[in-house]
Specification:
The chain has 2 helices and 8 strands, in the order βαββββαβββ.
């Protein structure tokens, strides 16, 4: 059985103005996004993903408004594992396009833990 957690994959920042945030991050990180949709913008930074999420239902912006997503081989198994360890389900597993699946759980202390199954991800 593969390791449950394969490493850090993605950090998502909640933003209120996606176009302004996209321009700022492109300038700050000196590259254009590789994924650019009205519901999500993704940058590949040194083999890791920096994501911008404009959906206000996903959480607040600013301090405490980001979620680190850990790579997992199978999202359903990972959610089940974390729940068995005492985590609380925040956002159930869902496909977000191109076979990529995400879920968010909360540890017993209120910290958010993102889980991502991405069949396209490979470290450089």
């Amino acid at each position: 059985m593969p390791q449950m957690i394969q490493g850090l994959a993605t950090v998502i920042y909640r933003v209120t103005d996606l176009d302004r945030a996209k321009a700022w991050y492109a300038r700050a990180f000196q590259q254009a996004p590789y994924f650019d949709q009205p519901f999500y913008v993704g940058f590949s930074i040194g083999g890791y993903e920096l994501g911008l999420d404009p959906d206000p239902s996903g959480g607040k912006t600013g301090p405490g408004g980001s979620v680190a997503f850990w790579r997992v081989p199978t999202i359903t198994d990972a959610v089940r594992h974390f729940m068995a360890c005492g985590a609380t389900l925040v956002a159930p597993a869902q496909e977000v396009g191109e076979g990529i699946k995400v879920a968010t759980v909360s540890d017993p202390f209120g910290n958010l833990i993102g889980l991502i199954e991405n069949p396209h991800f490979a470290l450089p």
